[in-house]
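Dear V.,

Thank you for sending over the compound details. I've combined the ligand you provided, zinc ion, with the protein sequence from our construct and run the structure prediction for the complex. I'm sharing the raw inputs here so there's no ambiguity about protonation or stereochemistry in the SMILES, which I know was a concern on your side last time.
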Amino acid sequence: MRLPEIGAGGQARLAAAEVVVVGCGALGCTSSDLLARAGIGRMTLIDRDQVEWSNLHRQSLFSEADARAGTPKALAARERLLAANSSVEVEAVVADLRAMNVPALVPARAAVVVDATDNFETRYLLNDLCVKRGLPLVYGGVIGVRGMQATFAPGGPCLRCVFPEPPVPGSQATCESAGVLGPAVSVVGAMQAAATIRLVIEGTAPRELHEWDVWRGTSRALALGDARADCPTCAVRRFEFLDAPRGEDAARVCGSDAVQVWPTPEARVDLRALAERLSPHAAVEVGAVMVRAAIRDRPGVTLTVFADSRAIVRGAGGIEAARSLYARFVGC
Ligand SMILES: [Zn+2]
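Below is the predicted structure of the protein with zinc ion bound, written out as structure tokens.
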């Protein structure tokens, strides 16, 4: 409150605000931690994955115990944020954001959406939703030793004004192929939190794309300019990602030998019944939101099935093998 940029009025605005952080990986950990400690009133965390050992160098809310237990990231993050500031309301949503569920999962009263995802499909989906609702989208990305941050707010360009199309799948380095330096995450996550705080207090954000190379200590800022008059999203208001989703039913989870399989997004799974069916074939654990099965005749292969019928298959050795294990043990 001593900061002239914030003051008592700004602090009260923060306490009354709700924000959504999509993705509880590296950027989601850093930005949600700073936002909780800044006194944001309510936060919704959305993430589909579980904590893994290979996350710990850059995902600052998680511990070895979380990796050992394979705790869903949104739940582990919620617990840590509440331990840091119990006056923040935190809702943890363990789900894969898709066109059919994004309008329901992003609360109508949210003031800002923080894009802390690791894939372009979700980014463009969030851009559609934010433009449609007139919400600012706080973008961040990190790969290797480099990071990038920009805020796409109403009145200025949207994500598609600046990056008209998502890259062709497989054409970009991913955190799986290139790795991520932890401090690069801290820089970008901190800038996302700062932009979010400013948006809540002032309603504006810098209209620039910032890039850092934290290894070489270099940075640059590119002016984003104005919205494009022919942008399909914010000018034409055609919401291609929201209205005509592309039908990917399986994808590699960034940074791990895990594949997400979700062929039937409308389906609900009876977790107890599934656990019973799997128990002859696997060592099975049943949780409140998932069933985890370590397959007996495939050492190292685990299948985690969530109540929305989505599964994360680990150690299968590829998308096709994961699909087939899903079909074999879960059925579709
Ligand atoms: Zn646009």
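A first observation: The chain has two domains: 7-243, 250-329.

Warm regards,
I. M.
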